[in-house]
Amino acid sequence: MLAYNFGAGHPMSPLRLDLTARLARELGIFDLPGVSVGEPFVASDAELGTVHGSDYIAGVRAVSADPTATSEKFGLGTEDNPAFAGIHEASARLAGGSLAAADAILSGEVLHAVNFGGGMHHAAASRASGFCIYNDAAAAIARLLDNGVSKVLYIDVDAHHGDGTQSIFWNDPRVMTISLHETGLTLFPGTGFANETGGPGAEGTAVNVALPARTSDAGWLRAFHAVVPQLAAAFEPEVIVSQHGCDSHLHDPLTNLRLSVETQRQAALTIADLANTICGGRWIATGGGGYNVVSVVPRSWSLLMSVAANGRIRSNTPVPEPWRKYVKEHYGEDSPPMMGDGVELWWRSWEVGYDPNDEIDRTVMATRKEVFPLHGLDPWFD
């Protein structure tokens, strides 16, 4: 999976995957009872074709064979998406990881599956965007639907709007996409506002909470719990697919949200609880964005895997010393001593009341007013 490499200096460094796997191994997550580690396969053109156009796949293949043959039409060879030899195989392997997760869920072999190398949520049907070539989460959702799953809920907690996944299922009432992200007024891709609610016949299945820059733990958790559980219960999915980009962290260099690792872990815990309550535990989690590759990403995604594996790693668990030593020796950086950031989580529930003077509350209410009535919910009280 480290072959997904846009080159030195690019924010999407494969180092984040290597360090995450090393930390998870040191924490013993891969050795927990009931946990298996699978090898991702390279998705076929037919499998990619369930969510991407054949012309686009052919375009990626052409650039993969000759990186000088860049294609602005398909968003390849840009500053965000530099061309490199083997880009098709590398991108299709990330997609294969999420397809393998879907297959394991469908077979009943597992209830929870994690592809922390996935979450390429900006990739649209016929265009690369935002460091994303093939949309693995969308491919996994299509696999579930093609094999008898009636409805899938997609929850995206990346700091950036999950625009590619939303666009792919814009007209499909079987898929609800919920994205909580920094507002497009201050962050790429500039989309994801409350009035984006789905196409004809699928109204209310695209849900967007566009949070103001500098939103911190309490405000983010209030917004999440004011929108996601209510719609999840109303939609009644058979499987939840979630994207856990951790670029919402306070120390991420590319975004303006102010979350802690504790909040990112809490999001995973809540999504796991929703899966257990609503869809028999069936849950696929992916990675996504995350550009503080040493201090934040490995901790956040190791905690995600621990949640999925029903492990007992908490925010106050010490980071294993061998991992910290490895990071210091190889990258010259001091890593945090604990898995969390040492914060106490608290948030004001929506039941306490709506404050029209609060910018986050106004954002939440805008979303609830747009979407809740379409599902028989009252935007003020449910």
Automatic annotation (TrEMBL):
Report the SUPFAM superfamilies cross-referenced here.
Answer: Arginase/deacetylase
Write out the entry's keywords from A to Z.
Acetoin catabolism
Q: Which InterPro entries match?
A: AcuC, HDACs, His_deacetylse_dom, His_deacetylse_dom_sf, Ureohydrolase_dom_sf
Query: Its pathway?
Result: Ketone degradation; acetoin degradation
Q: Name one GO molecular function term.
A: histone deacetylase activity
What Pfam family is a match, any one?
Hist_deacetyl
The family annotation for this protein states: Belongs to the histone deacetylase family.
Q: Would you tell me the protein name for this molecule? A: Acetoin utilization protein AcuC
Q: Which organism is it from?
A: Arthrobacter sunyaminii
